[in-house]
Design goal:
The chain is an alpha/beta fold. It has helices at 52-59, 81-84, 103-110, 118-124, 140-152, 170-185, 197-203, 221-228, 242-250, 273-285, 299-307, and strands spanning 12-23, 26-37, 41-45, 67-72, 88-91, 158-162, 189-194, 206-211, 214-219, 232-237, 255-260, 265-270, 293-295. Strands 5-6-7-3-8-9 form a six-stranded mixed beta sheet, sandwiched between helices. Strands 11-12-10-13 form a four-stranded antiparallel beta sheet. Strands 2-1-4 form a three-stranded antiparallel beta sheet, with helices on one face. Bound molecules: adenosine-5'-triphosphate (ATP). Adenosine-5'-triphosphate (ATP) binds next to α1.
Length: 324
């Protein structure tokens, strides 16, 4: 190997620091930091125009950042494009194939020397019987599963999926989700771009939430739910004196608010720890209400609250002409 050639870093698959990209003075991505480690499924989420596609285009070396650094497997996606091309598999938002191209022909066309077990992949994604089907005659779900097969064909170290389920009906979305879940379970590293919050919830190990080019927050689904999900609600019925129940429960750790309705239904709002403290209080009283139930916010709720929250502060456009 040429001693000056940068070694491939198999562990830190994507490392982005301070990525900024503007179009004509309008900032599309603003000081983005992003890490994807081997085997993770990381979701870039945000509304239309948040800067997700621009960010992944920089990761793929299709756009040159105005500022900041991008490394994929330790390499520069623009400078080392030739080395990275066989290592990164993508399904882009704009992916399309000629209508008359058959599945078998598409697989042959996309196969490189690294291609392995196309038949196994087609089988895995339910397309084994479709070798002679023309792209234009396939359902939306089948077409997206074919793009997954093509993205995986050459054994990439990183797979980039941009708006994979856009325009699909609910059944086809679930079909494609289960294919991505298979990838995740097999340890494939995936950078997933979506504005579908339920998709992020089902598929991602970590999520980076973008708005107007800025990171609002990033973390595991559990971390984001804790930070942005809002309160946990515990409900149960009681026949005890309402004032006494309110007094006792209000004192418990983690409880923010408690009320008893005219029907004897107790509603307790608090943080996650309130679940344990209310439970322990009920156990201490020697009676577990048969109608006890707890509502814990999910990632979709947390992301909705985060993305619909107050606007980030306006930023000064990045200076142009700082291409590295
Ligand atoms: P979507 O979910 O709609 O694909 P996104 O989050 O991927 O949106 P981008 O496509 O990266 O966002 O766009 C971010 C901003 O940059 C938007 O305001 C968009 O209009 C603008 N933009 C994107 N591409 C270009 C371009 N080639 N020229 C000028 N402006 C662009």
């Amino acid at each position: 190997m040429n001693p000056t050639t940068t070694a491939i870093d198999d562990h830190r698959v994507v490392t982005v620091r301070g990525l900024t990209k503007s179009y004509g003075g309008r900032v599309a991505v603003d000081r983005l930091d992003l890490d994807v480690s081997a085997g993770e499924v990381v979701g870039l989420i945000g509304a239309n125009g948040a800067g997700k596609t621009t960010a992944v285009e920089c990761v793929q070396g299709l756009r040159r950042p105005d500022a900041g650094t991008v490394r994929v497997l330790g390499l520069d996606p623009v400078r080392d494009a030739d080395r990275l091309r066989p290592l990164v598999g993508s399904q882009l938002q704009s992916s399309s194939l000629p209508d008359r191209l058959r599945v078998g022909e598409a697989v042959a066309l996309f196969s490189t020397r690294r291609a392995r077990d196309a038949d196994g992949l087609l089988e895995r994604f339910g397309l084994a019987g479709k070798l002679r089907s023309a792209f234009g005659t396939m359902s939306g779900g089948e077409q997206q599963r074919l793009f997954l097969v093509l993205a995986l064909l050459n054994q990439p170290r990183l797979v980039i999926l941009d708006e994979l389920t856009q325009g699909l009906d609910p059944a086809a979305r679930r079909e494609v989700w289960s294919s991505v879940a298979q990838l995740r379970d097999a340890g494939t590293t995936v950078l997933l771009v979506t504005h579908e919050l339920d998709e992020a919830e089902v598929l991602c190990d970590r999520v980076v939430a973008l708005r107007a080019g800025q990171v609002l927050d990033a973390g595991t689904p559990a971390e984001l739910v804790t930070r942005h999900g809002g309160v946990v609600t515990t409900r149960f019925g009681t026949t005890s004196d309402p004032a006494g129940v309110v007094h006792a429960v209000d004192d418990l750790t983690g409880v923010h608010h408690v009320e008893v309705g005219a029907d004897g239904q107790v509603t307790v709002r608090g943080d996650r720890s309130s679940i344990a403290h209310v439970g322990a209080w009920l156990v201490g009283r020697g009676s577990i209400p048969a109608d006890l139930r707890v509502d814990v916010p999910d990632l979709e709720t947390a992301l909705l609250r985060l993305l619909d929250g107050p606007e980030p502060l306006p930023t000064i456009p990045a200076p142009t002409g700082v291409l590295r």
